[in-house]
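Appendix B. One record, verbatim.
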Amino acid sequence: IDRGIDILIEEMMPGGEPREWKKLLNGEMYRAGHFMEAAVVYYTATGNRKIIDAAIKMADDIDAHFGQGKRLDISQHEEIKIGLLKLYAFTSDEKYMKLAKFFMDERGHSHNGRDLYGEYAQDHMPVIEQDEVLGHTVRATYLYTPLAELAAITNDPSYIEASDRLWENAVTRKTYLTGHIGTYRDHEDFGEEYELPNVSCWNETCASIGSVFWNYQLFSLHRDAKYIDMMERILYNGVLSGVSLDGSQYFYQNPLRSLGDFERQPWYGPNCCPPNVARLLASIGKYIYATSNNIIYINLFAGSSLTTDFNDSQVVITQETNYPWEGKVKIGVEPEKQTEFTLLVRIPGWTGNEPMPGGLYHFIDNNISAVDLRLNGKKLKINAEKGYVAISRNWKKGDVVEIDMPMNPRMVVASEMVLDDAGMVALERGPLVYCIEETDNKEGVMNLYIPDDVIFNAQFHENLPGGIVRLTGNVKSVSRGKDGVTTLTEDREMTAVPYFAWANREEGEMSVWIARDESRVIIPPTSSIASTSKITSSCGTGSLSDNYPGGIVPEIATRFYPRSQSGSTGFEALYDQIVPVNSFDGSSTYLSLRPQSGNQAWVQYDFDKLTEVSSTEIYWKDDKQYCLAPESWRLLYRSGSEWVPVKNLSEYTVGKDKFNNISFEPVTTNALRLEIKLDGLDFKKGELGPPDGNYMPGDVTWYETGIIEWQVYN
């Protein structure tokens, strides 16, 4: 470690001197903030001042160059403020807090003549005026975390109000059931309100880690358990899903539905997530307890101990528990001598009717088992305030508080505003969100539905490292009859595992959200002209290599988007007869078309025999990022050796969020061809752009479109 520290110091401060702060776009200040954080932790652990002295020298240099009356430009990435506030807490030197405040207040202002970084970096308006979470999710949480910390330090109403508005917007409109955030692959950013797709969602692991920091700072500001409820949800579901059970492989993207062929990787181009996971898990102890004046908060339930001082007496708090598999927690209180203080025990929101704060999701039942709370064996009345039960007394050695929380599996539905989850249900037990994997449900995942009256059983199994509690229940399975048209419904035992544990065995389909009735299951389509055709296109099969510039995909270890899942699956998507939510629909599959050159593409159906056709309908994909609805299209049929345009009786349209239908004079043919003129997006050198959301090496116009469904009728 010491050798690594020497290398790090030389990298950050060549020759022992700070850099010139020329690369504020994304690099120097970002690394400086992390350097300051590391310095405080390293000194706290070792007492060695080598790195902390270098970090202080660096921070002093930044303070000498930036601020009112000095340089007024700011970095694009917000990490620097977190690092400065860590130094402030360590040194008590207010100049570091004031510098962090300067960087906070300057964001969104162009009065100094600088060009704003825009919504991507939350630099589109002053922070205290913002009321919607926008832009890159990691950058956002690395802004909102110091905003909440500054609010607590300064008690500035404008900071407090902005913090509350932004959190409220995030949890009520833009957060997944798992606690993840991040709708778009493009800039790894938030989507529009209630836009929460399950397949193409980004949900970067680092964004979940940033959300843990943010929620903990909001707890520190308001001392309300709803922030710990949110933090707990993110820790168990949003963070742990990002790392394999043996700690050797990682997810960058965290989908809530997998089409198969999606797995963690040991390393990848943006290597931010693995070390970020490591540092969070190494510091998890700081989030379990909190103290304030004469109060001890029990925030998280985990086997652990806290040693602190109250009224000249050392107090030791211990927890014994098998949480989250069991709901029983034994809290031991061992003061050095009888000491008066208040113990605040969190009563998680999920023990009631609120899976997650904000009302975006709710349980379908009201079958709530009461939480049992006891002091030295005597049952206590639960009157929670801000999510905590207060136990105030003159504590003595041997005092024991016991809490028993109901852990019965429950079903969750999303707000009707979340179109992707309409008609779907998810499973929870305690703080854990569950999913179903193909490896446990060999006869299908997407063809299952869960009636509302199903009762699930929970049982501990050791078939994964450390063991897990899995859920089983009798659900319904839907399949096609032998005629390929009728449907058959039969009982099937379904097995669900905690979401964080998925993709630790063999590859296969996975889904958090499961159909609630037959209308939302996915089964093979009925026979159609499209499904019985041979399909070809000018852009291959829509695979990653077909669409990647030059057809050569970099190794996963160097790709900026390691094994990303967008929903492009190939020709079978064209005739699967799944009606999408809209053109954006990130929960459905589609065929991606990106020509290697030019702005033209075609897709062709070759029929197995001469067929009379007279109409067609197309649902265009538009992911609001790189894959856009086209500029125009037309339909041709094969006549002999020539392609002839059909005589359309209605106009060609390129409408979004609907089927585009045309009828035409009937033709008898053995093939149809869809010719498409693509719409382009212009990118300048240095801008973030496709295919990997990285900085563009040169100016380019990107052409890409997609087809969700293409049906032909006679």
